[in-house]
Amino acid sequence: MATKRSTPQRGKPLSANGDPPAYPSNNRPAHNPNQPPSKPASTGLSRAAQCALEVQLMYSSRAANYDFEKGGWHATLGQDFVDWLTPIRPGAAILDLACGTGLVALPAARAAGPKGTVVGVDVTPEMLESARAKGTVGGMARVEWVLGDVSVDLMGLEAVGRVVRERGGAEEVGGLLEARGRVMVDVPTEDRTVQFLWYHVLRREVGLECLFDSRWIKGIGSLEDLFENAGLEVVRSRRVKSYVPESWNAKEEMWDVFEKNLAFDTSFAKGGKVQMARKLWPEIWKTGLREDGRLWNGQALYVTIGKKPQ
Ligand SMILES: C[S@@+](CC[C@H](N)C(=O)[O-])C[C@H]1O[C@@H](n2cnc3c(N)ncnc32)[C@H](O)[C@@H]1O
Fold it and tell me: Which Pfam families does this chain map to (predicted)?
């Protein structure tokens, strides 16, 4: 399909402020990306149900404090997501998949105005509760919060990778778009940061494999390919700086970083996973080291906006 290539060009990502990323990506994969994922531990649940539980386990305990984590960066990013979609047409209908506490949906509702409609869908009841508790004020779009698993019920975006890529969600979302409608997706970059190693390598190694399979992301072009393969035209892509407060950690900080992540990611508590994780962490840590022997603790994103071809 002939589609217009967006700027920046594939393989030359820009950060939000136009600077190159603080550290270039380190191309030393710990695992063969072509290797099929290890089998999930047998729980008698369907994979979708198991994944929904894993997600809920991770977010239910965080819901009350989610908006304030690490200086409140989620809220800043949520507002920026909406700004990147500007102009949002007054009266627009907006679907926010994996809406969490509404940090994108609510600013979007302000932008769409009183004739607009916003529907936020999320699988974690506590996250939706926090969203609902915020209420709405005059001048905002009508907002509805829906409890649902977008990988099962809707085929949506979410922290997109698995859902969109493995299950044809991009085509489905494209099908939902109005003629002038747009779709925006964000994914983490392929940089081997602490976040990458924790969420995309360590979790998988201990059998917590449902979240964040981003091994298909090789650069800004991966998301663009996804859109184009789904029949969408890429409008714009950007590489966004880390909104998570960053640091560059030396070897001596390895266990401190481990404990902090563990305190945050409660999914490890079950089934002896902590012990397993402790054994694996030193080797996994090494795979992300930069030339200066430090590991980047941060998370840059690729964000792509697409639309239906005219
Ligand atoms: C990192 S939070 C993002 C929340 C919100 N989009 C934001 O930017 O603040 C991820 C959210 O995705 C939700 N989620 C993950 N997988 C989901 C799925 N399959 N269906 C619905 N929600 C999902 C989680 O419950 C969580 O609230």
Answer: Methyltransf_25
Cβ 122 vs Cβ 100: under 8 Å: yes
Name the residue among 127, 130, 84, 135 with its Cα closest to residue 109: 135
Length of the chain: 310
Cβ atoms within 10 A of the Cβ of 274, count?
13
Alpha carbon nearest to ligand 1 atom 27, residue: 100
Backbone phi and psi for residue 306, each to the nearest 5 degrees, phi listed first: -130, 165
Question: What angle is formed at CA 24 by the lines to CA 300 and CA 237, rounded to 5 degrees?
Answer: 45
pTM: 0.80
Whether pLDDT at 228 is above 70: yes
CA distance 97 to 212: 15
pLDDT digits (tens, 9 = 90+) for 76-121: 999 999 999 988 999 988 989 899 999 999 999 999 999 999 989 9
The pick from 47, 58, 67, 124 for probing ligand 1's pocket by mutation, whose C-beta has the most ligand atoms within 8 angstroms, reads: 124
What's the rounded Cα separation, in Å, for the pair 276 and 291? Answer: 28
pLDDT in tens, 57-74: 889 989 999 999 989 999
